[in-house]
Structures are given as structure tokens and as C-alpha cells.
Amino acid sequence: MAISYNYADVDQRHARLLEKIEQEKQRESSFNGMLVAGQSSGDDDDDAVDGNRYKLDELIGKGGMGEVYRAFDRLLSRPLAYKVLSSKLARDPIARDQLLQEARAAAALNHPNIITIHDLGIQDGRAFICMELVEGESYASILKREERLPIAEVMHLIVSACQGLEHAHHRGIVHRDIKPSNILLTKEHRVKILDFGLAQPIQTDDESSGYYGGTPKYIAPEQARGEATDARTDLYSFGAMLFELIAGRAPFIEGNLVQHHLYTPPPPLKSVAPFVSDQLDHLVGRCLAKDPSARFQSAGELLSYAQTARLV
Hints:
By secondary structure, the chain is α+β, with helices and mostly antiparallel strands. It contains ten helices and eleven strands.
């Protein structure tokens, strides 16, 4: 059930996206000026129209950073998702920069397994990004409804997510927050990676900021220590996610989860899911190696192993 995509013009499209990102960087200074000046249209209603272009409809998601609305682009006559900072964080420069970083990181990528960014800006003093509207549900939502994911669905996820991650990593972007709630399964049965709010360029030890971010349930040891992150960091989190989807529970579920990821050997997948094959047990266990050099070195290598082991 291996899936292959052909992207003959991906480099040209990527170059055009990078040009757009550079234009957005130039626009950011004007965005910052708007925030300082506190310019606002004065329309805070949920059905407000952003610059007469975006009409906001129903609220479809809400988190600590802000809200996501189903919206309509009047200029291009298409539905989309409109993500906006909460009013509480509207003037928080760190929150604003994280949202803009998410837009730039995702906009630099052009792949069917990664959410597409259409626009970003400021409205009523609140930063927003517009992205493709995906009809479907997150793997976190699926896991709440089902005890565990069928193995065939796990294989579909491995193929699709690895192709998306390989694309991002090849272009120097590490997601740094791979988890079930950040990967969607569309109604067309396509996997979509989203929420690049913590994404960063691949780092060396000298470039690491010391800030780990991420989600404790899935965090890689080097990220928890505030060290440099690279493709292998995402693969650790992906392994923790696979463990949970297959076994119905995460590798670590009690106590200090970050400390467990740092020092406690994860249980073998077979010990909690005896129905899995030795090959799948090995794949997940290798993703969860504490030492990045002992993991798969790329999403492409992980996928190659899965194909060689006849898992997909």
C-alpha cells in the first residue's frame, strides 16, 4: 500500500514560495507598527469581515493561543480556515511572532501531506493566518473515539506522514511538536501535518536557544534538554505517537513525563500490544531510542525500512 507522489516542479514552486516569504518579512515591520499604534477597525463581531475580504463563520477550533474559524475568501471565492490570536495574546510579541513563524514555516513547504498557508496579516490588532480548510479529524480525536488505530491505518499514516516530514526536513524545517492533535486525516483519507508554531530550522549545538517547547507526552530527550534539534527529533515524537495509536496508551503515562523521556527506557511495543509484528515493534522502538544516532536518521530511512520489512 505504498504511496508515491511525483513533484517534478517542486523546486520552482518552492522558490516562488520563498519569494512570498521574503515579501511577508518586509510586511512584518508594518504589522508591528500597526500593533504599537493599536489600529483597529473596531469590529469585534464573530461575523466580521477582514478588510472586506475574509468573512468569518463558525468557530471550528480553540486552544491556548487563539481560535480557528471556518471562513470565506470573498476575493477568490473559496472557503478556508482562519486562525487568529486570542484577544488576551493580541499584544504579546512572543505569541504574535510564534503565529507568524508558523505561517512562514508552513508557507516554505509545498506538499500534499502538509497544510497549505494562503495569507497572513493583522486585523483589529490581532495577527492571523489563513490556510486551506481541511474537512476531517485529528488522530487525537480518532483515538478518543476508538481504543486504538487499526494496523492498516497505522501503515497509511507512516507512509503519508513520513513523506510530509521528509519534505520539510529536506528544506531545513523541523516541526518540533509532532503529536496526534497536530496530524489530521481528511475525509478523502489524506494525512495532513499542521501547526508549525514551534517549527525551527535544523540546528547545531551552537545555535540551540535552550528553549525546548514541545509536548511532554511526546518530547524527544534532546529537545527536553534544550539542545539542538533536527529530523531525528521529529522521528522520536512520531514514534511516541505511533506507540500510543497502536497500543492505546503512550510510552509513558505516569509521573514526570519529561524525566521519563530523558532517562527511562520505553517499554517494548510488544509488551503492551502483543499482536504487532516484530518488524513494527522494531520500527517504533528505534524511533524511541534516547540517542539520536541510534534512531532512523531520516523519515525517508524510516519509510524505506517499513517497505523492506513489508509493513507497507
